[in-house]
Amino acid sequence: QSALTQPASVSGSPGQSITISCTGGSSDLARFNYVSWYQQHPGKAPRLMIYDVNSRPSGVSSRFSGSKSGYTASLTISGLQAEDEADYYCSSYTDNATLVFGGGTKLTVL
Amino acid sequence: EVQVVESGGGLVQPGGSLRLSCAASGFTFSDHYMDWVRQAPGKGLEWVGRSRNKANGYTTEYAASVKGRFTISRDDSQNSLYLQMNSLKTEDTAVYYCARSAGTMTYFECWGQGTLVTVSS
Predict the structure, then answer these.
(1) Which of A41, A3, A21 is CA-nearest to residue B46?
(2) Residues of B in contact with A51 (CB under 8 A)
(3) Segments of chain B with pLDDT less than 50
(4) Do A99 and B109 touch (CB under 8 A)?
(5) Cα separation values, B5 from A79, A100, B82, Å
(6) pLDDT in tens, A55-106
């Protein structure tokens, strides 16, 4: 199972909005509405931010939102804050009953 | 408090074996699918495998990169998950995370702090 494709890096200024894309294939992201997103700060464990494409766990800011169209899912962060600077990973369920992650995107808040 | 804590990491030679443990607390362990995810130094996350719950026969799934070498097991009486790693390769060097699946069992809502496995001669 090949990893999902994410941009290596994105950046934005405080208060701006950014979008991170995640592209998959017909056996994973395009087939299932089971896309999740994780935030990881250096040296820390990942934290769930979005699940099932566009659902937010309790405690996650409404500034984080998810969507999907065809082979591509997206994570949008609005009103960027300094603490949003982190690595972000997408994940999808696959038709082999396995899970696959994206390569990760480093978000820099300028 | 829902919590999972990994242990058992360390230095092992190529071709060697190691067993990781994950101790769970604060939830009904037997109800949940449990997964292992790893992260090589400076690299991204990689799903390793999962153990389904009792209701689903404790069946397991593995990533292609570890299938046939790694075995996931669990002991619900001890609220523990295990990862037996055999025929270790240098490319297995990583922080190994234990994670609890939830809802549609396609995402991880609780992660441990990870345990570092280093495969080197």
Answers:
(1) A3
(2) 102-104, 106-107, 109
(3) none
(4) no
(5) 34, 23, 11
(6) 999 999 999 999 999 999 999 999 999 999 999 999 999 999 999 999 999 9
> Quick count: other Cβ atoms within 10 Å of Cβ B64?
9
How far is residue A72 CA from its own chain's centroid? 11
Going by C-beta distance under 8 Å and a sequence separation of 6 or more, which residues neighbour residue B71?
A: B60, B83, B84, B86
Residue A10 in contact with partner chain B when CB distance is under 8 A: no
Which among B47, B113, B114 has the least Cβ separation from residue A100? B47
8 A C-beta contact, residue B112 and residue B45? no
Give the ranges where chain A is alpha helix by DSSP (H): none
- Within 8 A by CB and 6+ apart from B55, the residues are B31
C-beta separation of B90 from B14 below 8 A: yes
- What's the distance, CA A93 to chain centroid? 14
| CA–CA distance, B82 with A3 (Å, rounded to integer) | 25
Q: Which of B65, B107, B108, B115 to mutate: most A Cβ within 10 Å?
A: B107
